[in-house]
Design a protein that fits this description.
Shape: globular
Largest sheet: 8 strands, parallel, barrel
Strand order of the largest sheet: 1-2-3-5-10-11-12-14
Helix content: 25-40%
Radius of gyration: 21 Å
CATH class of the domain at 11-27 and 37-54 and 207-380: Alpha Beta
CATH topology of the domain at 11-27 and 37-54 and 207-380: TIM Barrel
Number of strands: 14
CATH architecture of the domain at 11-27 and 37-54 and 207-380: Alpha-Beta Barrel
Length: about 375
Amino acid sequence: MIKRFSVLYVGQIDLDNVGLDGTPADERRYSNERIIQAYDNSVALAKHMDGLGFYCMWTAEHHFQHEGYECLPNLILLGVHLAGITKNLKFGSGFNVVPMWHPLRLAEDFAMADILTGGRLIFGVGRGYNAREVETFGAPVIDNDANKEFFEEQMEIIFKAFNEESFSHKGKHYTIPPDVPYRGYQLKEITLVPRPVNLPVEIWQPIASGKTLDYIAQRGIKGMIHLTGEKLTDQMFHSYQESAATAGRQLTLGQDLALGMGFYIADSQETAIEKARPYHDERYKWFAPFGFVRYTDSEGRPWGTPGAPARVPSLEDGVEQKVWSCGPAESFIKMLREYEEKYPGMEDVVLHWAEGMPWLEFKEQLTLFAERVMPAFAGHD
């Protein structure tokens, strides 16, 4: 049963000349004064969501994006600030790019935030996708195997830091603590100070390519499947459940998973599609070169992979594949009811603030959703 509605804001500013025929993504360069608008947007969105009864505002960690798409480099710092100016809304890291952190610094920062906000931050992790930022921070991402190995060792350290009063770790990349003298004795273990008080820590990770799906399902990490075609989504939901079972975690289909989707509410599907089209297309101008077109062919193969379409996706494709809901609120309710029946364990739906959509337009869309869709789901928190 769907219980919680959230929003993913990746940190874009109000982009100029959006749409398929608008300014090419690589030609965008904004001043620092314009980039700062992402923080004004964050504050406005948090206050509006808090007043409407949404559950969580998810944000994304990224760096160096003068193009204006993803401009939030520290989600924990942002979450602590936003928690201080709201009452009930939670703030999720969707996601901290772990290879760009020392795992102990990330664990410490979250632990402090957990205490300072009374448990209103949700911990999210990711391996990264953007070579400009990850490799600049000295971590691998182009070499997928090296990235995976590095990330999993970092996560092992984070799990120990959160859950053990004292611990040590010796791996390929980290020896914690170093074998050094300290106050007259040889150092053998350390303790995270402080540790989170809300234990066990709820951890989320994106499921995009599916390369880490087995790992997160078996380690008890929850998964977010965002803007992904219906067939591939179904494959991932079943794979997550099956992988969890191999580790002794018996889950109802959809349990510990969140589904992210785009939406636009209007009197008709045609009107909604035309209103949302520039923002949908602007997203894929930025993300398609990274391989993030999660629409699929009839066999469930993502576009751009061998045998599947390679063209730029249209919003009509997104509607057909149930990545987007465009039209009257009743049509969105119908789609969500279908997902409830298909995935009875799923409790979380995450709405996407499409890249390029101005704040005032998205604010109106959220208000419509809260008034016309959320009340249909009596179980929502």
